[in-house]
Design brief:
Residues 1-22, 41-132, 142-164 have a biased composition (Basic and acidic residues). One of its GO terms (biological process) is response to abscisic acid. InterPro entries: LEA_5 (IPR038956), Sm_Hydphi_plant_seed_CS (IPR022377), Small_hydrophilic_seed_prot (IPR000389). The structure is a single chain. By secondary structure, this protein is mainly α. It has a domain at 1-57. It is 68% helix and 2% strand. The chain is built from four helices and two strands. Strands 1-2 form a two-stranded antiparallel ribbon.
Length: 164
């Protein structure tokens, strides 16, 4: 998948168009389009349609849309069916599939955007505190375990969102 910035370069657009013709999705949300242009239009239409649908549905509960609430409930039900280990393995397999589909750079880009979203949700101070804990983690011990062992204070209330 490519960013909007990458798609501005005429040579890159030509390469992407060539990839799209046999059916590869090169624009996030452009699945099904057989050219770069058609994938961009599909993605834009799907985005607008999703936003309109969100407005129609309104919000349920703590600022979540009904789509988010339904998704959360579905995830919880699936976790119950599979158990903790099975649910974690399922997530790992999806992660590997995304990595394969997006390629290394696309996967990194997606992770960077997720990190930025989380930083917006919990603020600079909370994000820094969460990073402190993550930086302590090793293969064998979680960041929380190491912090406790080494007497490092981590204020988790700074990065817990109010809905959790």
């Amino acid at each position: 998948m490519t960013s909007e910035h990458e798609r501005r370069d005429p040579r890159r657009r030509h390469e992407l168009d060539q990839k799209a013709r046999p059916g590869e999705t090169v624009v996030p949300g452009g699945t099904g389009g057989k050219t770069l242009n058609s994938q961009e239009h599909l993605a834009e239409g799907r985005h607008r349609g999703g936003e309109a649908r969100k407005e129609q549905q309104g919000s349920e509960g703590k600022g979540r849309s009904s789509w988010e609430v339904k998704g959360h409930r579905g995830g919880e039900a699936r976790k119950e069916q599979l158990g903790h280990e099975g649910y974690r393995d399922m997530g790992h397999r999806r992660c590997e599939a995304s990595k394969k589909q997006l390629g290394h750079e696309g996967y990194q880009e997606m992770g960077r955007h997720g990190g930025e979203m989380r930083k917006e949700q919990i603020g600079q101070e909370g994000y820094r505190e969460m990073g402190k804990k993550g930086g302590l983690s090793t293969k064998n011990k979680s960041g929380g375990e190491r912090a406790a062992e080494e007497g490092i204070e981590i204020n988790e209330s700074k990065y817990k969102t109010k809905s959790r």
